[in-house]
Amino acid sequence: MTDISPIEALSDPTRRRLFEWLRDRPCSVSELVQVVPVSQPAVSQHLRVLRQAHLVQVRKQGQQRIYSIDPQGLAELRDYIESFWDTILDAFQEAAEKSAKEETDQ
């Protein structure tokens, strides 16, 4: 199984739709086929990519495979996204301080 980044995995609209659907509850492949306009083999392929990105996990229940959000992978994705906030907030603070200084200099 080759690793793919979560961002790469979610760049595909079909995978993103499946991932968003799983946010509400775990589902079988047959349920997920109803969510997107692609074949069952294509849904299975998209789910495989989401598993490789550690965004979903699977468990067997009888003959079915039930997919759900992988909390660990989701936490890693969240950490990655949140890592941008420090830079963004620093830039915002710098711009605000510069603006305030310019107003007091006038």
Task: Please tell me about this protein's structure.
With 106 residues, the chain is an alpha+beta fold. The protein has one domain: Orthogonal Bundle (Arc Repressor Mutant, subunit A). Helices cover 64% and strands 13% of the residues. It contains 5 helices and 3 strands, in the order ααβααββα. The chain has a 3-stranded antiparallel β-sheet. Strand 2 (56-61) and strand 3 form a beta hairpin.
CATH class category name: Mainly Alpha
Shape: elongated
Ends apart, CA distance between termini: 62 Å
Q: What profile does the largest beta sheet have?
A: 3 strands, antiparallel
Rg computed from alpha carbons, rounded to a whole number of angstroms: 20 Å
- Helix share, percent: 55-70%
CATH second-level architecture:
Orthogonal Bundle
